[in-house]
Write a structure and sequence with these properties.
The chain has helices at residues 3-32, 37-68. By secondary structure, it is mainly alpha-helical.
C-alpha cells in the first residue's frame, strides 16, 4: 500500500473513531465511570469496533465518493 493510501486510510479511521468515542462517552460516561478501567475499555471496544467496521467507515467511504466522483463525459 502506498503512503498516500495509508494516510487516507488512517484519516478515515480517525474520522470515524473520534466522534464515535466522544458521543459514546457523552452518552454513557457517567454510568461507566463506576466500573474499573479494564471493564470500561472492554465495553467501549465491544460496542464501537463493530460500529466503526460496519457503519462508520462505509459511511465515510460513501461521503468521500460523493465529493470525489467525476462523471465520465
Amino acid at each position: 500500500m502506498k503512503t498516500k493510501m495509508k494516510l487516507m486510510a488512517s484519516l478515515k479511521i480517525w474520522l470515524a473513531i473520534y466522534p464515535s468515542i466522544t458521543l459514546f462517552l457523552f452518552l454513557f460516561g457517567n454510568a461507566l465511570s463506576l466500573l474499573p478501567l479494564y471493564q470500561r475499555t472492554f465495553i467501549l471496544t465491544i460496542g464501537l469496533v463493530p460500529w466503526i467496521v460496519f457503519a462508520g467507515i462505509p459511511f465515510l467511504d460513501f461521503i468521500l465518493r460523493q465529493f470525489t466522483y467525476k462523471p465520465k463525459k
